[in-house]
Amino acid sequence: MDNxxxxxxxxxxxxxxxxTLRALKKSKIANEVxxxxxxxxxxxxxxxxxxxxxxxxxxxxxxxxxxLKLPRISGLEVLKRLRAAKRTKLLPVVVLTxxxxxxxxxxSYRLGANSYIHKPVDFTKFxxxxxxxxxxxxxxxxxxxxxxxx
Length: 150
What we know:
The protein is of the alpha/beta class.
């Protein structure tokens, strides 16, 4: 059994990337974090294409933290493409966004998001949200087997 507990953080804002990485560190989350700075990079990573051609795609993240407002390909389009592909359709996706638009939340769930979290502005609250994310998605949750395995 693969005990991989990696995180894919899909976020374009350098301040939010740093904030998330600091919150993970402060929460003593030692899991490997890969950062994709836009939707194209996220899809390349997950499907082993583009700059990630040749990456071992049998090693998938345990959870994807996905921002919605991304350059090149939006977070909603990333989510749509993930759910359309057999290899990635069951990957847990947590939308972690500053968007307060109800339509973004509804669209995220309609496209198959597992969770929708509005980023707290206060760092202490953000650290607590990240700690709870880690506890649930990386410790308690049982991820689906890799595509093609039963």
